[in-house]
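@channel sequence for tomorrow's demo:
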Amino acid sequence: MRIRPSFVVRSTTVVLVFFFVVWIASRGIDENSLETKDRELRRNQPPWRDRRREWEEKFQEDKLFVPNREKDNQIPQIKVPNFIGEEDEDEEHPKHEHVKGAGIPHVDGVEVDLQAVRRGEGGKKDDVRHEDKKEDGFKQPQVGAPRRGPEIAENMRRSGNNIKYRQAVMKPGEIGNWEPEPEKISDAPGEGSIPFKLGPEYKDDIDKSIKEFGFNIVASDKISLDRSIKDIRDPECKYWHYDTQLPNVSVIIVFYNEAWSVVMRTVHSVIKRTPPELLAEVVMVDDSSTKEHWKQRLDDYLVQFHGLVKLVRNKQREGLIQARSIGARAATRGKILVYLDSHCEVGINWAPALISPIAVNRTTCTVPLIDVIDGNNYNIYGQGGGDEYGHARGAWDWSLLWKRVPNTPREKARHKYHTEPYRSPAMAGGLFAIDREYFFELGLYDPGLKIWGGENFEISYKVWQCGGQVLFTPCSRVGHIYRLKGWAGNPPPQESGASVVMQNYMRVVEVWWDEYKEYFYASRPEIRNHPFGDISELVAFRERNHCKSFKWFMEEIAYDIVEHFPLPPKNKIWGEIRG
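structure tokens (generated this afternoon):
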């Protein structure tokens, strides 16, 4: 009997298929178990990594974006897609919020969810864990809302969306789940935060820009707004793993008559180095700038961000302190508020380390390590000082001048790893993060503080003495440009009066220092009888919420201040001798 080869092949195929089906059935595949395994596999990978390839393919397919690097301070041309609908406008500032038909620009390092753009969501995936968040943002909390009894701190921790976030975990040798890909560094000016120096022929223009703005703007204008920077974090920072669904943030930037490129580089760096899931919005607060480039040019430029960057214009000069409170009211999309000065650049993977401690405990206020951006050549480096790791605590002398002192052995003993967040009695005030609802419960800034000065101490004391904590976060780093010698400065508004800073200091010590205020007046006896305004509401807030004494604060938190700045002898007699 002759067997045909084709029969053998067909028979073999049938048998193999039969056994394969039986094997599959015996495995008992459960779709739910597969999904669970898939989630576990992806648990340590932030969503923006998973979508990178899809987004890159979409960028090539749709050709929606063009680079928006600035050349000679010209506004880049934007290709506008015709599928984006109009979003709801902010009631107070509809003119500057959302513009129909505007596209999202390509910013180096940023990935945009095009499906979200088509739905009119601005290209950012909402955090579904925020159960109290509505489509039009958060309900405006009542400023300084009273709390009952001494349980204020516990009540504050429990309020909000009641979601329990996981604490950060160190996994030595395993790259952190939020770590980004290394930035590509070109040979363009300032790339990799390499010092960018101009020749002597620019000296006159540089001197003029320093006088007007406090920085070398000639060099700044030649550096890309999306420039790459070097990673100067401690190497240990790369191995921290954070909750994969951290709450999102509203970044608030107040500016007044600044140079264009330093402010916009601040904005671009935030967008470039913040995962889209974490960045709800950037709120720019223009404190009634008078320079021409902050008028129509800014309106036109912000169109490209399609509402991701919100602009608030103060009708009159409010000063930095109250402008920040205005920014808090306008920032309705983020669970956490992040304040940045208007001349900064955020560092590599800056956001998760700053957000995580607040997610775990909402009465925490976090502060990044502040690096120096050289105002002449835009090199970035650490401040120096501090302990062997460069870690310092915020402090003050008894005249209430800001100081930095080394981190203490007592604080180090509280932690296993030297890159963990550590306690600080005070912060510099320009850069910090705080839960939005909690900030409103604290009453925002004292409304009696004017322009600038003392607000950093006021918020620090208020947080600590009323049940919260201030933590410095070594793995979140932000560069800051310090003004150069020769800056003419910004004169305060005429209606602010004289000795604004001293009035602010007096309000702070009168409310929070208790008997220790005598040491302040011993250091500044000439202002003891100066008026400082009504503080009755602030005193009532402290009493109502059973905030702790300054003596407790000095003994438990600021225990090292007296070591560095001994208490001055109190003045027994103060007067004036006339000839």
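heads up for whoever presents: Residues 28-141, 145-160 have pLDDT under 50 and may be disordered.
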